[in-house]
Amino acid sequence: MMVGRVIGTVVATRKSDALVGQKLLVLQPLHSSREQDPSLAQGAALPDIPVQDVPMQGGPVENAFPPDAVVAVDTVGAGVGETVLVALGSAARKALSRPEAPVDAAIVGIVDSIRIAGREQG
Amino acid sequence: MMVGRVIGTVVATRKSDALVGQKLLVLQPLHSSREQDPSLAQGAALPDIPVQDVPMQGGPVENAFPPDAVVAVDTVGAGVGETVLVALGSAARKALSRPEAPVDAAIVGIVDSIRIAGREQG
Amino acid sequence: MMVGRVIGTVVATRKSDALVGQKLLVLQPLHSSREQDPSLAQGAALPDIPVQDVPMQGGPVENAFPPDAVVAVDTVGAGVGETVLVALGSAARKALSRPEAPVDAAIVGIVDSIRIAGREQG
Amino acid sequence: MMVGRVIGTVVATRKSDALVGQKLLVLQPLHSSREQDPSLAQGAALPDIPVQDVPMQGGPVENAFPPDAVVAVDTVGAGVGETVLVALGSAARKALSRPEAPVDAAIVGIVDSIRIAGREQG
Amino acid sequence: MMVGRVIGTVVATRKSDALVGQKLLVLQPLHSSREQDPSLAQGAALPDIPVQDVPMQGGPVENAFPPDAVVAVDTVGAGVGETVLVALGSAARKALSRPEAPVDAAIVGIVDSIRIAGREQG
């Protein structure tokens, strides 16, 4: 599974029936989330920071949407700023209330902590 | 799921039976769609801009076809210039009227807006 | 789906039973097919150009085999030089006469034309 | 399958029901595991080296989490510092005690040795 | 499918039950196999060249294990030095005697020859 940070939300009114009622979140892989947003390095909680809300036709959102971002369906009540575990591919559908939905990415856990061995010596 | 922009169409007369009647669109990931086409940065709607229509043998379409473009089956009535949500892999078939078609990418939603947190501070 | 150009063929006598009788073609993604072979830029048809036929032990074919090439089973009668639509992953098996074959890439259409919007302004 | 080295652990209290009781390990592909951690080149066993344990909000773990790391469910009793064989995609679920869990990566073997041919001449 | 060259073997005593008795081979994509091992360019057969056999804890095998190598289950009697056809993802399991094994890569053919069109002009 991928570890990512929730950095935004997607609204799509016209969509596949099986996606109705699903919360769509934008995720960025953990390792790149700090580079792209310096505020993430300061230890502040994210949910209250201002957001950028742009229409989709020719707007500047392409700049804000990171190259490695993906959109996933939330299945655990995740919010913007949280670090999450993401199942990709056919595994994503195993987490859905509607397993026949056309979904290839799902948030399946909220990460409390990660321990990496030996990094103090790096 | 991937967020992409519809940048073109594909015509294939000879194809798998299960693909007959499916609309095939060319998509580019959102983050790279502006770099590749400066006109996309000006806020103008795309559907009316001129198109390049080239035959497939030795023509210049290789230059126009972006390296990261994919071809997807449309399931929601999307058109050129729209920003869409794309399901990849086995998820794509869940959105089709013919779920046994040999399809690995399907447009499953039209994006109204995306909100990215904290980008004002970037 | 991927759009690719057929650039060669593969012969494998010893193989999985379910692959017997399947035509195996070498494909390269469309965008890179011209860079790698200058002759493709001149508009000439490809099927008659000379081919390189090399044995597999220590021969020079590694140089000729592009890094991004894949081998796919043909299901629509495609030939060398044609631009094709390729289904990857589990979708590939949906196009086969033997859906239980160990195949992860299949040619599912022959592309007549591709229209890309707005490239005249690029 | 991928060959990776176990470099850490993940704790997620809130998660998909089918993930409860599964051990989640952080893996790095073998070839890059030494570059990222010089101590790995000295032949010492890893399980006893100190670990870095950081909270997930704005902490420095993004630096410690390698770009190519993945999180996998352990099915063979692997531990930090071991070299393991990892099944990705739908194959991962074949190794689980709960095959319906939303899992796209599973450790399916502990590697005793790898023999690479001809490297003495490299 | 991928075309690769068999460059080594993997021994794993502790592993998923369904992997017992499966031969695990290390593969490298064809295009990069020559760069990494100059001896491959000289036309000599590979099976008799010396091998490097290293333990997994802190040894130098990370250097010998190419970044793009994968481990696949052999289903056709392939050996070190041979050029093979590899099925990835769910397709791999279609080739196995035990289709429920947690396997995402399988050797499904031994390549006799590859013909690439037009390379003489490259």
Automatic annotation (TrEMBL), chains A, B, C, D, E:
Keyword set, alphabetical order? Bacterial microcompartment, Carboxysome
Instruction: Tell me the compartments it is located in.
Output: Carboxysome
For this record, the Gene Ontology CC terms, alphabetical, are: carboxysome
Per the record, the domain of life is Bacteria
Please name the Gene3D superfamilies in this protein's record: EutN/Ccml
Q: Which InterPro entries match?
A: EutN_CcmL (IPR004992), EutN_CcmL_sf (IPR036677)
Q: Which Pfam families match?
A: EutN_CcmL
- The protein depicted here goes by the name Ethanolamine utilisation protein EutN/carboxysome
